[in-house]
Design a protein that fits this description.
heterodimer; A: about 80 residues; Non-ribosomal Peptide Synthetase Peptidyl Carrier Protein, Chain A; B: Peroxisomal Thiolase, Chain A, domain 1; 2 domains; 5-stranded mixed beta sheet
Chain lengths: ~80, ~300
């Protein structure tokens, strides 16, 4: 796992643990629909990833993601674009 | 010398509506609190004229003023006043006891209205065009929403608050930033069927960004505010702005739990509630930031020194 991927995973896990502190890293592979996240949680996750990586994403794209893996791929691409 | 806030008063008549009220449309207290932080809100009776409610907020200030005729302008801010002819401000002026020489006007910038009104009022004072200006926000958002709409019915509340603006030799200058982006007007709008439609995720995202940026501007371009009050739209938005603004190291007001979103009235109502709770000193510098339909956004910072009387 690259440094960027690790920071993304930490940010996402911190967000998930706001709702369920017992969750471990395996939660990051589950579908968004199976997690206790509402639509505003997804906006908060999007904004927190932007802050962590100092990038600007497009909420219209990330709002439709069904898996957290998609957030990872999207934000890795943004971060690497620089 | 510059203008700032020298008095404040509020009016929240009406019925207290707690979250159990929305069980009939399938919403629970837990669900509403999680998504908005709102526990209850005040709703005015449908027949109560908004001019009466605004006058209830303004009258104590007029009474406390040594010379009411020195209030040269009244700005009544509202997005929920339905009557356009005549405007509501002239009626409020009469009911509140203002002199016939007052220039009274209506203003609407949705949830950003109080910021726009404050900027306008301070500008009139600073330009020497008014000795004192009364800015009053009054809203009955309960009349705007579809009360059967699960997305919006529980979010809004009613109320009114007024502030008196006047020059003081020791007040620092007003700092303001404001703008609008009409291309985003569809994010929050009245529906043809009677109700309000919100694009929740986009509104959340843009509100956090706009209010955080406005707060930063106020700190970068003038004396630092001693308290920051954001438009009380949703506790989740407020807490995200608080997080984004943590480096500013300033008290940030979140009083939405017992008020709901009262649109343009939310900032002065929250400010007054914080003062009445003893959480703020009677002298300081208010930073107010807002985001609303239009989309209209902005921030303003002004000094305040208030009399030792309850605002609510």
């Amino acid at each position: 796992m690259s440094d960027i991927e690790s920071r993304i995973a930490d940010t996402m896990l911190a967000k998930l643990r706001e709702r369920d502190p017992s969750l471990g890293p395996d939660a990051l592979t589950r579908p968004v629909g199976e997690l206790d996240l509402d639509s505003l949680d997804l906006v908060e996750l999007h904004q927190q990833l932007e802050r962590e990586l100092q990038v600007k994403g497009d909420l219209k794209e990330t709002a439709g993601f069904a898996f957290l893996d998609e957030f990872t791929a999207y934000f890795v691409k943004l971060a690497n674009r620089g | 010398m510059s203008a700032g806030i020298v008095d404040i008063a509020t009016a929240k008549p009406g019925r207290r509506i707690d979250n159990d009220h929305f069980a009939s449309i399938g919403l629970t207290d837990e669900w509403i609190r999680r998504r908005s932080g709102i526990g209850s809100r005040s709703w005015l009776p449908d027949e109560t004229p908004l001019a009466d409610v605004a006058a209830e907020a303004c009258a104590p200030i007029v009474t406390r003023t040594d010379d009411p005729s020195s209030i040269d302008a009244l700005i009544v801010v509202s997005t929920s006043v339905r009557q356009r002819i005549p405007g509501v401000a002239q009626k409020v002026a009469r009911l509140a006891g203002l002199a016939p020489s007052v220039m009274a006007l209506d203003m609407n910038a949705a949830c950003c209205g109080f910021v726009y009104g404050l900027v306008t009022g301070v500008s009139l004072c600073d330009a020497g065009q008014a000795r004192q200006v009364l800015v009053c926000s009054v809203e009955a958002m309960s009349r705007m929403v579809d009360r059967m709409d699960r997305q919006t019915a529980c979010l809004f509340g009613d109320g009114s608050a007024a502030v008196l603006l006047a020059d003081r030799t020791d007040f620092g200058g007003c700092c303001r930033v404001a703008g609008c982006d009409g291309s985003q007007a569809s994010l929050m709008r009245e529906t043809g069927a009677g109700g309000i439609a919100l694009d929740g995720m986009q509104v959340y995202d843009r509100a956090v960004r706009r209010m955080s940026e406005s707060a930063q501007y106020l700190f970068d371009h003038g004396p630092a505010p001693t308290v920051l009050v954001g438009h009380q739209a949703n506790s989740r938005i407020l807490e995200q702005v608080r997080s984004f603004s943590a480096h500013l190291d300033v008290p940030f007001v979140n009083r939405i739990e017992n008020s709901g979103n009262t649109s343009s009235a939310s900032i002065p109502l929250a400010f007054a509630a914080e003062l009445d709770a003893g959480a703020l000193p009677a002298t300081g510098r208010l930073g107010a930031v807002a985001y609303g339909a239009g989309e209209a956004w902005g921030g303003v910072a002004v000094d305040y020194r208030l009399p030792a009387v309850p605002a609510s």
